[in-house]
Amino acid sequence: MQSIIITGGAGFIGSHVVRLFVNKYPNYRIINVDKLTYAGNLANLEDIENAQNYRFVRADICDFDAMCALMWEEKVTGIIHLAAESHVDRSIKDPFTFARTNVMGTLSLLQAARLCWESLPEKYEGKRFYHISTDEVYGDLEITHPEGIKSPFADMAAPSGHNLAYGTDFFLESTPYDPHSPYSAAKAASDHFVRAFHDTYGMPTIVTNCSNNYGPYQFPEKLIPLFINNIRKRIPLPVYGKGENVRDWLYVEDHARAIDLIFHSGEVGETYNIGGFNEWKNIDLIKVIIATVDRLLGNPEGHSLDLITFVTDRAGHDLRYAIDSRKLQKELGWEPSLQFEEGIERTVRWYLDNQEWMDRITSGDYERYYEEMYNKR
Ligand code: NAD
Ligand code: DAU
């Protein structure tokens, strides 16, 4: 029997993790702690909201007293911490909010867990504090092969029609931290606090650093859902710079599976990188999205290519992310399950089939709708 707090469970990745744990572990108690910022959406969890083993608590992780009270009330044995401000562009406009939630919020949770667990007779035995971080803390990598070379990991990933790498360097667990955006700086600081609690107090922590996720329920400020929605509505697609930046994409359910595996079998004090072995230049990925949306909407081939609009680059735009997640594969046997082209098709279909979900968020009266929906609960 475990009693697990999952923070940020109403967000994109968190909702997939909550769903997986609620369905897979009927004997666990799953407590979703979420402030419901603009990015938190309880509609992401409608299918499990009445499950016996599930509780939603609307709370701010920065509220230390509330976190302490919940730790005691629910006799929490594990924390999977995803709550964060997550969008790089927002962090450039409003860095304070990112420092508050990502740094102070993480510290508040760590301290609440420490005070609770250290006062128990068994102390940290059987406990876990699992912090979800990002590959962006490592900074960025060079593009040494702009046309791409065969990825050295091509055989390890779920087979893809692509399998290219744009450089010969990859982020390892030992890569020194070098964050560039206020978002990644705040995530890096939170990672350091988590490790400091392990080293100083002996808290059983684990940190994972994952690459870009894609799939259903992602807030449409992020590249993939934003562009799918824009194509559907014939709105221009703002490609930053020349679209040459490279990201390593992983289907969100594969990330959730990795979190499950690492939470249960990962070694305390360790860091694991999680990646898709799947690098794409933005512009190539955007063309795949356009082709898929056009095909599924019955548009002629190339119909929406005219929407591509090159705009001013993001400030401090990281050039290339590419994860080496062989440690996770070797030690715990995890690998991505889904071929990328299949994942993108599934993702595009989901957004086209769930236009109501998208329209509510983008319609402008999202916050009012949202307050009403929350108050009904
Ligand atoms: P998201 O923005 O979709 O969701 C974040 C959730 O956290 C929302 O539900 C929001 O309401 C909640 N939240 C924000 N501030 C809070 C606070 N103060 N108290 C309680 N809840 C709060 O984010 P996401 O994309 O699902 O990312 C989840 C985590 O995974 C983040 O920690 C992020 O850094 C990390 N991550 C994301 C990706 C990615 O590609 N999206 C990749 C690697 C790591
Ligand atoms: O690498 C993991 C990170 O991936 C996570 O830690 C972040 O939370 C998550 O948001 C994501 O960060 P990115 O900045 O890589 O994701 P985003 O979807 O914002 O952008 C992907 C790429 O597309 C990036 O190179 C910027 C570019 N882009 C993005 C948007 C929103 C555009 O060209 N146009 C756009 O409108």
Summarize it:
The chain is an alpha/beta fold and 377 residues long. Helix content is 41%, strand content 16%. It has one domain: NAD(P)-binding Rossmann-like Domain (Rossmann fold).
Molecular structure report:
The protein has helices at residues 12-24, 64-73, 88-93, 95-118, 182-201, 223-233, 252-265, 282-297, 326-332, 340-353, 355-362, 366-376, and strands at residues 3-7, 29-34, 54-58, 78-81, 128-134, 149-150, 164-165, 205-210, 212-214, 237-240, 246-251, 271-274, 279-281, 308-311. It has a 7-stranded parallel β-sheet with strand order 3-2-1-4-5-8-12, with helices on both faces. The chain has a 3-stranded mixed β-sheet with strand order 9-11-13. A two-stranded antiparallel sheet has the order 6-7. The chain is built from 12 helices and 14 strands. Helices cover 41% and strands 16% of the residues. Helix 1 links the parallel strand 1 (3-7) and strand 2 (29-34). The protein starts with a strand and ends with a helix. With 377 residues, the chain is α/β, with parallel strands linked by helices. It has a single domain (3-215, 248-280, 316-341), classed as Rossmann fold (3-Layer(aba) Sandwich), CATH 3.40.50.720. The model has no long low-confidence stretch (mean pLDDT 95). The structure holds nicotinamide-adenine-dinucleotide and 2'deoxy-thymidine-5'-diphospho-alpha-D-glucose (DAU). Residues 86-88, 134-136, 211-212, 222-223, 226, 238-240, 245, 247, 282, 314, 321 line the site of 2'deoxy-thymidine-5'-diphospho-alpha-D-glucose.
